[in-house]
């Protein structure tokens, strides 16, 4: 009899777990949310939504903003997330994203992070059309002469960016931007447009485009770039790559805990 009762209750228990997870995802996505909104989103009665939230609140996973206020994600989530933080390795998570994107675009795809005034490539995948076998993984590249570097510069704190722009900007090709004011104006456009491009600025005959990758708190933690020869990766082609690259970067950002509002 007891086993029969347990089997009957199992579907209901699973549904409750699913709904509770949906509540957490809703709060993570929308921020402050009331019981009425939660009930509407889940398609349940307000009393059901209230019971779900009460259980989550008792475990510290959600918190109420004042008496009868709306609810937000609680600090109990931090405790749970702490166990997984060590595994949230950007290079590991980005490897599959790089490979999938490289196969889709046919170009070489890299992920780079800022490191002491430069950019370090931490992951790379080559597409079917890639003509070079050079592996940039682990190599340091200049911020001002690469698409990834420009993304990292555009989104870093103002003081840090100004400190870097006060340095002498090395010229790698005739197309490298070495004027700090001109580069600063370009970085403003990068922040507005959501992507950066380089046309033969580090290496003659090579073009590249990059987009930002966001961390859990919305900060830009890395840049994802696609690069190829100038005869194939034209300026028009670069603009066409922005959308699929932005979508891939958004998926990776979500894996890192970033929920875009």
UniProtKB/TrEMBL annotation:
**Pfam families per the record?**
HTH_IclR (PF09339), IclR_C (PF01614)
PROSITE patterns listed in its UniProt record: HTH_ICLR, ICLR_ED
Asked if the record carries the keyword Aminoacyl-tRNA synthetase, the reply is no
Q: Which GO terms describe its molecular function?
A: DNA binding; DNA-binding transcription factor activity
Q: Name all IclR-ED domain ranges.
A: 76-258
Q: Which UniProt keywords apply?
A: DNA-binding, Glycerol metabolism, Transcription, Transcription regulation
* SMART domains registered for this protein in UniProt: HTH_ICLR
User: Taking every annotated instance into account, which residue ranges of this chain make up the domain HTH iclR-type?
Assistant: 14-75
Biological process according to GO:
glycerol metabolic process; negative regulation of DNA-templated transcription
User: Is the keyword Secreted in the record?
Assistant: no
Role summary: May be an activator protein for the gylABX operon.
UniProt name for this protein:
Glycerol operon regulatory protein
Write down the species.
Amycolatopsis albispora
